[in-house]
Automatic annotation (TrEMBL):
Gene3D superfamilies: PPM-type phosphatase domain. InterPro entries: PPM-type-like_dom_sf, PPM-type_phosphatase-like_dom. It comes from Paenibacillus polymyxa (Bacillus polymyxa). Residues 588-604, 611-625 have a biased composition (Polar residues). This is Serine/threonine protein phosphatase. It comes from the Bacteria. Keywords: Membrane, Transmembrane, Transmembrane helix. The chain crosses the membrane at residues 258-276. The keyword Chaperone does not apply.
């Protein structure tokens, strides 16, 4: 490769001088076989567009696609740069001077339009200098002023040719120049060559050993003159340390190749026409795709759907590339960039990174004014909404902290507050997330309420059990009913059924108690047999519990007294009832009946406790007496 077998080194200096903006622009590209160095000087006053940067990038993009030193190719690159400037000249006419140097590491050519200069030094002397397209240069060419005066003449800035000229591009294409080891090429804008004379350049060249030293020295010379106003200045130096050595051409071989190529062209000529026809058809299809995609992209951009606009602009750009329409390619690329900035801004909003979102929207706003499909007011509205979005996100974040701390009530308040703000400001992404959070928080609160009700019901159920043991059946029924009502409310049907049985049992015992105490007619309560069975069952249960806590023999001995003790309250309550009946016989009969029941209870308890021996039965009978 040519680059590996040669040695070119480059350095440059470019400053704004006394001005805020530097409208000069230099860039270069070195490929394996060719290199291109481009320097431009912006001549307009547009505050947003940089004409020098635009034309340099356009030329380098074209060079990258197909590196070439041919005049036709390089002039075409300049014409495309000219078209791009004219296309973007909306507020003011964009203008620029440009110098392009192309080398294959053995020879070089240059194209100039305007007054950016090329100095070619060899062996420490000036080999040649490019000519300006200025009135001063024209006067020098006519012999009316010396050539040295072109750098200081008052008409040096009066340009006759430049990029952006409505009369077209009339650039100067220099013939190829053979390079030699040690050559130095210096590219300079007017801000440099106006104040640094040729003699000073040669002096700096003599001292400098590399391009960096040369450009630094030239800058020092420029600034040492302490002009009141220093224009934008740029100097780029290219040191040709080693030139690529070409192999001698074999002319016979070259002629033979040309003849073979001509023969092949004749043979495949027919196929070429078919291929050309297909290419034309493909181009027509690509053109149709480009138009349709661009139309759709513009519609999406006007509607504010920048994600779809981005996709359609990309398709339109690709179609423009297929038909080699570079003007529309740049247009759609620029519109795609604006769409991408808007999509990026929306993405940052979803991530709650509002600083980056504002930066992205602001970049889009600056470019959107150049392209009609984009609504600048819509973008500004998005920027204005960012403060509201940030406040909404802050409330949501505070709600998250409350939620994580278990403070679901206050978390719900913050979420609702944020959701209302999101709805009012159109913060749709946050609104969706907040609706989920509100639902989740409500579920948490509902679960807590259910747990609280379960605890409340459990307490009432425990109270009912306690009142049952204290024989307060009415209180137990009320407690059970309260617990049952709560279980019904929270749909715990198993607990409802269990409490239904507990209530039935309490009512049964209450009824039996009232009947036993004479408060109910015999027909309304349980039969005596049932009552006896119920009491006996309770006594047996209590005796069984006592028997389980002690040894079998001891429990058999103590079962009857326990049953007798359990029957004592019944006797105590029976007495007032009997007194209310008003007769001593009735009281005696009642007491007798209770005694009989207790006897039966004791017997039953003894049987339930497993007291099968006669001694236990005798003891129970004795206790009953």
């Amino acid at each position: 490769m040519r680059k590996d077998n040669s040695d070119f080194s480059t350095a440059f200096v470019s400053e704004a001088g006394s001005y805020i903006d530097n409208r000069d622009y230099f860039a270069f590209m070195e490929t394996d076989d060719m290199a291109c160095y481009v320097l431009a000087d912006g001549l307009d006053s547009d505050q947003e567009m940089r004409s020098a940067e635009m034309v340099v990038k356009t030329v380098l993009e074209n060079f990258m696609e197909k590196p070439s030193m041919s005049k036709r190719r390089l002039m075409r690159d300049l014409r495309e740069a000219q078209e791009w400037l004219q296309f973007e000249s909306r507020r003011v006419r964009l203008k620029a001077s440009l110098l392009m140097v192309v080398t294959n590491y053995n020879k070089m050519v240059y194209v100039s339009c305007g007054n950016v200069r090329l100095y070619h030094f060899r062996n420490g002397r000036l080999n040649f200098r490019s000519k300006d397209h200025s009135l001063a240069q024209s006067l020098a060419d006519d012999g009316r002023i010396p050539d040295e005066a072109t750098s200081t003449h008052e008409e040096r800035g009066n340009l006759l040719e430049y990029l952006g000229n409505p009369n077209g591009v009339h650039a100067h294409y220099a013939k190829k120049t053979q390079l030699a080891d040690g050559d130095v090429m210096l590219l300079a804008t007017s801000g440099m060559w106006e104040d640094v004379e040729l003699a000073e350049m040669l002096g700096a060249l003599e001292e400098a050993k590399d391009p960096g030293m040369l450009t630094d020295t030239l800058e020092e010379v420029l600034l040492s003159k302490q002009r009141r106003t220093v224009n934008n200045y740029t100097a780029a130096a290219i040191y040709v340390n080693k030139v690529f050595q070409e192999k001698p051409k074999n002319r016979r071989k070259l002629i033979k190749r040309i003849l073979i190529a001509l023969l092949a062209f004749v043979i495949v000529g027919g196929g070429a026409w078919i291929t050309l026809a297909r290419m034309a058809a493909n181009k027509a299809a690509a053109l149709e795709t480009m138009i349709e995609s661009a139309q759709a992209a513009d519609d999406y951009a006007r509607a504010g759907d920048y994600a779809k606009a981005l996709k359609s602009y990309s398709e339109a750009k690709n179609a423009a590339v297929k038909i080699n329409d570079k003007i529309h390619k740049r247009l759609y690329t620029a519109e795609q960039k604006v769409s991408q900035l808007m999509v990026d801004g929306d993405g940052y909003v979803e991530k709650a990174d509002f600083t980056k979102a504002e930066a992205s929207y602001d970049k889009a706003r600056k470019s959107a004014g150049l392209y009609p499909p984009f609504n600048v007011k819509d973008i500004e509205h998005k920027i204005d909404q960012l403060d509201s979005y940030a406040e909404t996100a802050s409330w949501m974040k505070d709600g998250d902290l409350k939620f994580q701390g278990g403070d679901y009530t206050n978390a719900l308040k913050l979420y609702k507050k944020a959701n209302k703000a999101a709805m009012e400001s159109g913060y749709t992404s946050a609104q969706k997330e907040l609706e989920k959070k509100i639902t989740e928080t409500n579920d948490k609160l509902t679960a807590i309420q259910q747990q609280l009700k379960e605890i409340q019901a459990g307490k009432l159920q425990a109270k009912g059990d306690r009142l049952m043991k204290d024989l307060d059946y009415e209180g137990a029924i009320d407690a059970y009913s309260g617990a049952q009502e709560i279980y019904q409310e929270i749909d715990k049907l198993e607990s409802v059924l269990a409490l239904e049985r507990s209530i039935a049992k309490a009512e049964e015992k209450q009824s039996a108690e009232q009947q036993k105490n004479g408060q109910l007619p015999a027909g309304l309560g349980l039969s005596d047999g049932v009552l006896n069975d119920t009491d006996a069952g309770d006594a047996a249960s209590e005796a069984s519990s006592s028997a389980a806590a002690t040894s079998a023999t001891a429990s058999q001995a103590k079962a009857a007294p326990t049953a007798s003790a359990g029957a004592t309250p019944a006797k105590r309550e029976a007495s007032p009832t009997a007194k209310s009946g008003g007769t001593g016989d009735g009281n005696a009969a009642s007491t007798k009946a209770d005694t009989s029941k207790e006897q039966g209870t004791a017997d039953s308890a003894s049987k339930a406790a497993g007291a099968s021996n006669s001694e236990s039965q005798d003891q129970a009978a004795a206790n009953g007496k």
